[in-house]
Structure formats: C-alpha cells, structure tokens
TrEMBL record:
Name listed for the protein in its UniProt record: Arabinogalactan oligomer / maltooligosaccharide transport system permease protein
Membrane protein topology class: Multi-pass membrane protein
Domain ABC transmembrane type-1: 88-302
Transmembrane segments: 28-47, 92-113, 125-142, 177-200, 233-258, 278-303
Keywords on record: Cell membrane, Membrane, Transmembrane, Transmembrane helix, Transport
The species this protein was found in: Caloramator quimbayensis
Assigned protein family: Belongs to the binding-protein-dependent transport system permease family.
Secreted is among the record's keywords: no
Stored InterPro entries: MetI-like (IPR000515), MetI-like_sf (IPR035906)
Taxonomic classification: Bacteria, Bacillati, Bacillota, Clostridia, Eubacteriales
C-alpha cells in the first residue's frame, strides 16, 4: 500500500509539473503569431537594409539581383560629403524646434483642459482634430493656406500689415522650411496634449491641497508637484516625438514639393531623394543606417540621463 501511495504521489507531481510548464508557455504561444509578423515587417527589412548598405545597388543592377560588395564606401561618401552635415544640422534644428513647441503648447493646453471650463468637451474635440486628420491631408490643407496669392495666411498678413507683407512661403526654400515647421507643430501638439492630460489626471489632488495649505503659489505647485510627477509620462512621449519628428517626411515633402532644394530638406527627405530620384539604393540604405544609429544613440542617452537624475 505504501508503495502504491508513493507511486501515486510521484504521478501527481509529474502531472502537476507538466501542467505548470504548459501554463508557463501558454502566453508565448499566443504571442507567437505577432512575433512572426514583427520579424517579417521589422527585423527582415532592417537586416536587409544593413546588408545592401555595404553594396552598390542601383537601377542598373536592381533587376539582376547581383549587387557588388563595396564595403564601407557608401558610408565614406556620406561622411565626407558637406551636404550631409548641412542637412544633419538642419534636421537637428527642425527636430528641436518642433519637439520644444509640441511639449510647451501640449502641456499648456493640457493644464487648461484639466481645469473646469465651459464647453470643455467641445474644446477638447476641436484641439484633437489635427491628430485625427491624416498627416498628408493636413499638410495639403496648410499648403493651400500658404499660397502667396490666395492663401489665408498671406491674406491676413496683407490685410493687417499692407500689400508688401505677403511672404513667398512656397517659392523661397527658407520660407518653405519655416512653413513646414509651422505645419508640423500644428500636427504634433494634440498627441503631447493628450499624453500630458492623462498624466495630469493621474496626479492625486491631495498634493495640491497640501500645497495650498502651506501657501504655495501656482508656479511653486507647477514646479514641485506637476513637473516631477509628469516626468515619467513626458520622457517617453518626448523620445517618441523626437523620433517621429526626425523622420517626418510627409510634411517636408508636401510643403516643399519633395525638398527639391538643399535649403529645405532634412535627412529622411535626402534618403528619399537619393533612392527614388537618383536610384542610389545602396547609398540611401547606408544613410538610413546612419539615421537609425543617431536616433538609437539619442534615445539611449536621453533615457539613461533621466534615470540618473531620478
């Protein structure tokens, strides 16, 4: 009897361990289809891009599939080209200005919406419309508003400041770049506004009540309560906003007619131009790898610096 009892206990333990193993691996089986899809749409293109960046891929040999290996020649051409550094500086300016105004205006509007306002639901819907509209449609709309003769912006400028106040937004590359910045700021504010609003609504009101009891001013409450508690929300949103803005080709392409001139293009539009105007696919792949390394380095350094501050 004792022997049978021991055998039954061993069988129960074996069955229990099998059930535990099956339960442990069940979530991974459910995630497996998504992982397979991600491998095909993310990892494979990424590795293929790295591969062709070391080869001479042009329109002449694209169909044959025989791409000569040229080592780091594409990277050397990029890093020794003054156009790359000018475009990189312009891209950094583009990204810094856009992200700064996204965070500033987004946080300001989130603070306003977090208070009691008449018709707050309608105001929130109106403010979130730029995020709901496709970027391409929004950029086309702004392009029409920047028309030198019939655009709403120049009509207002000439009405208030005279007929000479019209600005050649679309014909002058410098003004086209500024017009693209204005458009992208308008498109990016709602995302940051909704992110900050969600963070504000998660802050307990007891902190502000305690600060009121101590006689703290509005700026002191914002500096010592709101900003520190919003930091875990703003940090990933700022990183995402930086990556998105750095790679924002749709606005640049629509506002500046594909960034045909050097004064109005950023790195990602330069990649598009090299690939689909000059058909230098290996060169553009190498430039894409450099952009990827720049963004990955920025993201890791920024997140590590935030952790060190905490």
């Amino acid at each position: 009897m004792e022997l049978k009892t021991l055998q039954n206990k061993k069988q129960n333990r074996t069955g229990h361990s099998r059930n535990m193993a099956q339960t442990r691996w069940t979530p991974f089986f459910f995630l497996l289809p998504s992982l397979i899809v991600l491998c095909f749409i993310v990892l494979y293109p990424l590795f293929y891009e790295f591969w062709i960046s070391f080869r001479n891929v042009t329109l002449l040999n694209l169909k044959s599939g025989k791409y000569p290996y040229i080592g780091f020649q594409n990277y050397i051409q990029i890093l020794t080209d003054p156009l790359f550094y000018k475009t990189l500086l312009r891209t950094l300016v583009w990204t810094a200005i856009n992200v700064f105004f996204h965070i500033t205006f987004g946080l300001f509007l989130a603070i306003l919406l977090n208070r009691k306002l008449p018709g707050k639901s309608i105001i929130r819907v109106l403010l979130i419309l730029p995020w709901a509209i496709p970027q391409y449609i929004g950029a086309i709309t702004w392009r029409g508003m920047f028309n030198i003769e019939y655009g709403a912006i120049n009509i207002l400028l000439t009405k208030f400041f005279g007929p000479n106040a019209a600005i050649p937004w679309l014909s002058d590359p410098k003004w086209s770049f500024i017009a693209a910045i204005i458009t992208n700021i308008w498109l990016g504010i709602p995302f940051m506004m909704m992110t900050c609003l969600g963070g504000l609504q998660s802050i307990p009101q007891e902190f502000y009540e305690a600060a009121d009891t101590d006689g703290a001013s509005g700026w002191q409450k914002f500096k010592n309560i709101t900003l520190p508690l919003l930091k875990p929300v703003i940090t990933p949103a700022a990183v995402l906003g930086t990556v998105w803005t750095f790679n924002m080709i749709s606005v640049i392409y629509v506002i500046t007619y594909g960034a045909e001139t050097e004064e109005a293009q950023i790195l990602v539009s330069l990649v598009y131009k090299k690939a689909f105007s000059y058909f230098r696919y290996g060169y553009s792949a190498a430039l894409s790898v450099i952009i990827f390394l720049i963004l990955m380095s920025f993201s890791s350094i920024f997140i590590k610096s935030q952790k060190l501050e905490d």
